[in-house]
């Protein structure tokens, strides 16, 4: 076959589109496969050891991933420069490159959702409403541990990510106020648990008016395998006052920290 020079910029672009493809372009198919598998396994290992449980741990994961990806791209670029003469292999065809790009981006990247949610128990959510202000604000992006309550018991005042009991497609974030077997009652915005006033330093009331249903509720006993949840922005929250006690089965996980926000001072803040 005719000898053809390798173009460094092409090698770099191919590895940026599909990690390891630039190495294949350079005739280094084994190296390309190793780089691709390493780039996939590296973040999985770091997630498994729990680095993502803190904001700075997540930053470390992202930085290591990005530096390794840049290394793969750079390695393809400089290897192409060194290859003065190259006899193309049977797989050095443009349609093979295109097929690999499509396969990697569909077979490898699409299962990322399943991997992070089901295997690693990690997911991200965006706060769409002000129902949890000032604790959580509109536009806050949250990292959530989906396996937290499989290993830990529910506690009063825990923040939880939950599936709406009315519409499973909707995801809410609320605070647990009462647990199973407890009596909860709300009188003129004041929460009582087992007839004792419950202090809540995190809640806000922006409306001084008292409305039945919103500001007066109960008394009710929280059923077995249920909890009673409320939003911190008490006057603007759809919660257990509307749908009654929440089944524990609807709880998806526990929000850990804010990884992005409109207000940059909130980025990295632990959620309490």
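Q: What amino acid sequence fits the structure above?
A:
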């Amino acid at each position: 076959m005719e000898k053809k020079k390798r173009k460094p910029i092409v090698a770099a672009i191919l590895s940026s589109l599909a990690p390891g493809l630039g190495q294949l372009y350079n005739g280094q198919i084994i190296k390309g496969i190793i780089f691709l598998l390493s780039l996939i396994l590296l973040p999985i290992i770091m997630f498994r050891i729990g680095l993502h449980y803190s904001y700075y741990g997540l930053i470390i994961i992202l930085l290591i991933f990005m530096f390794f990806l840049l290394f793969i791209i750079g390695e393809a670029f400089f290897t192409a420069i060194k290859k003065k003469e190259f006899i193309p292999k049977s797989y050095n065809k443009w349609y093979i490159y295109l097929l690999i790009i499509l396969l990697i981006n569909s077979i490898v990247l699409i299962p990322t959702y399943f991997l992070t949610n089901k295997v690693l128990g990690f997911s991200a959510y965006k706060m769409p409403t002000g129902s949890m202000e000032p604790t959580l604000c509109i536009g806050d992006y949250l990292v959530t541990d989906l396996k937290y309550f499989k290993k830990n018991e529910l506690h009063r005042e825990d923040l939880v990510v939950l599936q709406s009991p009315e519409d499973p497609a909707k995801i809410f974030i609320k605070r647990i106020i009462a647990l199973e077997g407890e009596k909860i009652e709300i009188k003129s915005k004041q929460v009582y648990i087992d007839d004792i006033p419950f202090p809540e330093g995190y809640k806000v009331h922006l409306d001084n008016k008292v409305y039945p249903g919103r500001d007066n509720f109960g008394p009710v006993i929280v059923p077995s395998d249920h909890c009673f949840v409320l939003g911190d922005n008490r006057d603007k929250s759809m919660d257990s006052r509307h749908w009654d006690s929440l089944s524990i089965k609807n709880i998806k996980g526990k929000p850990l920290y804010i990884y992005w926000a409109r207000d940059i001072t909130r980025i990295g803040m632990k959620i309490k």
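Q: And what stands out in the fold?
A: The longest strand covers residues 251-260.
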